[in-house]
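Exercise 7b. Backbone tokens:
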């Protein structure tokens, strides 16, 4: 089952190497944990807690956390030698959000 999923990732991401898949997954993991930590710090700094209105939480996420996630993804991806993959990944991500037609 894991091998099937692994092969599907390689196909979906258009990469050949198992090592590259592992490095990309590590970059996503590091980015996720770092973003959670930064999100927690920003919430503490702004005084946002579980009782804060949803709109405040959503605005902080959209305005601060989402850009930080993408910046960290590029930093970790670059440090791990996968700059090109993550640059294309982020371009595709934002083109889907903003309905931008790109190259096929």
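Sequence design result:
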């Amino acid at each position: 089952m894991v091998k099937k999923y692994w092969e599907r990732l390689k196909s979906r991401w258009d990469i050949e190497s198992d090592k590259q898949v592992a490095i990309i997954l590590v970059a996503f993991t590091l980015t996720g944990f770092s973003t959670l930590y930064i999100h927690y710090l920003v919430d503490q700094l702004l005084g946002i807690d579980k009782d804060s209105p949803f709109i405040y939480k959503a605005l902080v996420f959209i305005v601060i956390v989402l850009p930080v996630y993408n910046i960290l993804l590029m930093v970790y991806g670059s440090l791990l030698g996968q700059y090109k993959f993550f640059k294309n990944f982020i371009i595709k991500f934002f083109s889907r959000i903003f309905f931008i037609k790109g190259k096929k």
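Instructor comment: The mean pLDDT is 90. The helical segments are 2-13, 18-46, 54-79, 83-97.
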